[in-house]
Amino acid sequence: MAYAQAPTASGIAVPAAADLGFKPKVDLEEELHFKFWNPLHYYRALNQHRMRLNLPNPGQFELLNKEIKTTLLTNFMFDGGRADLAKILSPNFQVMHTFQLGLPGQPSAFEFAGVYADENTLMHGKMDTDFNLQARLNHALSKQLQVKSQAQLMTSDAQSMFQVEGEYTGSDYTLNTKAINPS
């Protein structure tokens, strides 16, 4: 190992600090200035803080009030009669017929619906007697990433719409992005 000559009065060779494994002291003000302007520092600090908290995933925003909606009786209260018939054609596919008889001032209705579902995909569509179509497709690209689409084609164009949605589920967060074409 070659030693750097340090200017001493006796002329003895003294090893440099770098040769002994010592790092030169970094100016604390310079280091803090670098961290202040570096966005990766804030990202790492936030990630470390999240990991220390060990928070559970809160779930989807749309599902926050789901339990409250199921206790309301407005969907189950109507005048007239209703019959729902379902036939399972295979483990993944089923069809449904809905007949609704209204009072003399309200028209009767019929709906036909089909559902296909497997481990990664859900497709649901229904059409009524006025030829209004509603369709939904949910597909899981991976365990964390889902793609969803929804379409509604009504006889009046003002109520037709198309919606595409992407959802990523992390360990303690859910990220959702949505695009809608209202008519």
Task: Write a concise keyword list for the protein shown above.
183 residues; alpha+beta; elongated; 3 helices; 8 strands
Structural overview:
The chain is of the alpha+beta class and 183 residues long. It has helices at 28-37, 39-53, 66-71; strands at 81-88, 93-101, 109-117, 121-128, 133-140, 145-153, 161-169, 174-181. A hairpin with a 4-residue loop joins strand 7 (161-169) and strand 8 (174-181). The longest helix has 15 residues, at 39-53. The chain is elongated, with a radius of gyration of 32 Å.
How is this structure best summarized?
With 183 residues, the protein is an alpha+beta fold. Helix content is 17%, strand content 37%.
Question: What's the order of the H and E elements?
Answer: HHHEEEEEEEE
**Secondary-structure content class:** alpha+beta
Count of beta strands: 8
Question: Roughly what is the average pLDDT, rounded to an integer?
Answer: 80
Between the first and last Cα atoms, what is the distance in angstroms? 78 Å
Strand content: 35-45%
Helicity, as a percent range: 10-25%
The description of the largest β-sheet is: 8 strands, antiparallel
Report Rg.
32 Å
> How is the largest sheet built, in terms of strand order?
1-2-3-4-5-6-7-8
Please report the number of helical segments. 3
Low-confidence stretches: none
Shape: elongated
